[in-house]
Design a protein that fits this description.
Distance between the termini: 39 Å
Radius of gyration: 22 Å
InterPro entries: HTH_MarR-typ, MarR/SlyA-like, Tscrpt_reg_MarR-type_CS, WH-like_DNA-bd_sf, WH_DNA-bd_sf
Organism: Roseococcus pinisoli
CATH superfamily of one domain: Winged helix-like DNA-binding domain superfamily/Winged helix DNA-binding domain
Pfam family, one: MarR_2
Largest sheet: 3 strands, antiparallel
CATH class of one domain: Mainly Alpha
Order of helices and strands: HHEHHEEHH
Strand content: 5-15%
Oligomer: single chain
Strand order of the largest sheet: 1-3-2
Number of strands: 3
Number of helices: 6
Keywords: DNA-binding, Transcription, Transcription regulation
Shape: elongated
Protein name: Winged helix-turn-helix transcriptional regulator
Length: 156
């Protein structure tokens, strides 16, 4: 009788598959770390009314100066329907404005408003504080290594 995994070993010598353990699952641990960061960010950004996706959108838009909604969504790691809602809410609150692209008047270009810049500065302070709190138990070398590993996982 042959085993599907490896025909070269007798069936009784095949190791048992490891059970799935939630507490050491990368996905579970990443989700828990993300929840902790989001909780810290919301605590430190209390009163700003700023969600994580809104914050990411403002950060990317400030870096770019101006962008189309699709380009901004890609850079902020959001699908088109999500970025559409995020941008609409930021426009409604006066943090982003729209204009026409001088090269193509049909294309809508987004820029951050002065009010959006002020909100972004407060959000960046809250984000930095949340990052620092989340990683306080790590040495500087461990922080760098963790960020390097997360970047590799994110880039796929």
């Amino acid at each position: 009788m042959s085993d599907i995994c490896d025909d070269t070993l007798p069936l009784e010598q095949h190791p048992e598959p490891s059970p799935y353990l939630l507490d050491i699952s990368a996905g579970h641990l990443l989700r828990r770390a993300h929840q902790r960061y989001q909780s810290l960010f919301q605590e430190y950004a209390a009163g700003l009314g700023l969600t994580g996706p809104q914050f990411a959108t403002l950060v990317r838009l400030a870096e770019l100066g101006s962008a189309t909604q699709n380009h901004l969504g890609r850079l902020a790691a959001m699908d088109s329907s999500t970025v559409q809602g995020v941008v609409r809410r930021l426009i409604d609150r006066g943090f982003i404005q729209t204009g026409s692209n001088p090269m193509d008047r049909r294309m809508r270009v987004l820029t951050i408003t002065p009010e959006g810049e002020r909100l972004l500065q407060e959000g960046q302070a809250a984000g930095q504080r949340a990052n620092d709190t989340l990683m306080a138990m790590l040495t500087p070398a461990e922080r760098d290594h963790l960020l390097e590993l997360l970047q590799r996982l994110s880039d796929g």
